[in-house]
Each structure stands twice: as structure tokens, then as C-alpha cells.
Input
Amino acid sequence: MRRSSRIPPRPPSSPPPPPAAASKIPFRPRKTRKLTNERLDPPKPPPPPSPPVLAAPRFLKPLSSDGEIELALGHLRRSDPLLSALIGSLEAPTFASSARPFLALSRSILYQQLATKAAQTIYARFLELFGGGGEDGEDGVSPDSLLALSPQQLRQAGVSGRKAGYLHDLAENFRSGALSDESILEMEDEALLTALTRVKGIGVWSVHMFMMFSLHRPDVLPVGDLGVRKGVQAMHELKELPKPLEMEELCEKWKPYRSVGSWYMWRLMESKAAAAKSMPASAPAPVQGR
Output
């Protein structure tokens, strides 16, 4: 018999048995430790103590009011040791009552760039145009009465043509209502400076002088005045005249009585000039800054 070459098929294999279930090993949950800022950064030192806060200045009265000079001098002695020594060596300032704002501004224009004696003569002639000299003439000075005078009439009193134009511009500002005696007395310093420098012939220095010596404002610092600048230079022994910004910084401690501090700078320079005059001619001149 012939053997068949066919290979009988294998019986199907049985599927492999399922793997045994893996046994679970229990783990204890780990505790997460939080890192706080105290671990990461060193503790911050406590902030330095704040400087004592000075009380805001009360509403300041004019320096001609009773007791204001004493308050000003007390503040300046406490705030500036250099100025305190100067205050102790000189008489206290006085600020007498002054004229109406319109009259004071008119007089300021007349006095510009003139020696004191020449200015006084022209001012007396100016008052005669209004009904007489002294108080009678001053009472007659008003915007309307000034505008009624021609430039020729003003020139006959010794007023230059340019100053006649300045006086008429001032009077026009008052007659139009842009300025008035009442509004000037009520304006804050910065607003007043802006309003008055719009008038022809009135600059920043003139406004500062008007605020100090006519309105008696307590906190005016005339940074452009040569005498005040020289006084600050001498008191601080500076090599050069301080510029406006440096004046502001050096005199900051005088607030809110910078008008009185400035007054002492003028007196300081006057005392130095008097001492220089009384010095014998053979004596050597003092070396500045020593």
C-alpha cells in the first residue's frame, strides 16, 4: 500500500490560561512637606522708623499781622542752624502796612531801574497829577484817573514813554476786570505770579517784591534777586552764586517762611558791606570762603 504524504492537521491548541492576577502591594501615601517662604528666604528686617511728620502749616497770615514774625523766627531757628545764628545777631524784621495793590503796582513800575532818590522825586511829581502829593495824591490814583492822563502828561512828570505805556496797560487790566484789588488779595501765590506777569513791564522779580513788601506774603523766595543769592552763597560758603534750582533746594527748610529768610539774606550782605567799609585801609581783605 502506498502511504499518503498528507500530514493530518493539528488539533487546535487551547488558548493559554489567563495570567494570574497580580497581587497588589499597599503603599502608604507620602506626606508632602510644603516649603514656605521662611525656609526659602531669610526673614526681612523691620523697616526703619519713618521720620516725624510735621503738621501741615496752618493758613498763613500776612507777616504784618500780630505775632506772625515771632512764629516765623521760631520756625527758622528750629529748621536751619546757620540761619538761626544770623537771626540771633540781627534785629527782627518789620513789615509795615502798605498801599492798595493798584497803587503799589503803579509805584513799582515807576521805581524800576532808578536810584532811590530819583524814583522818589518822580513819584512825588506823579502824585501831583492826581490832586497833590502824599496821601492826597495816592487816594486819587485809580485805573480810570490814570487812563485819563495822556503819555505827554506823564512824561512832564518825569515818567518815560515806555513806563507810561506800562502804567496804562496795568490800568486797562484793572478796568477790564482781569485784575482787581480784591482778586489780588485772594489769589494764591502761583496764580498771582501768572496773572501779574501778563501785564506789560511787570516781571517775576517785580511780582516777588510786590508779594513780599506790599502784600507781606510769608513764603516768597526771590530766586533771581542778586542780594538774596549772594546772602545764600555767603552763609553756605559756596564758591559760586547759587542758581535758581539750587536756591530752591538750599532754602527748602525755610518753608513756609521763605520771605523772612530772604529778608535776612539782604541784611547779611548789608552787614558785610558795612564791616568792609569800617575796616582800616591797611588791613588785608578777607579771603572768601574761609
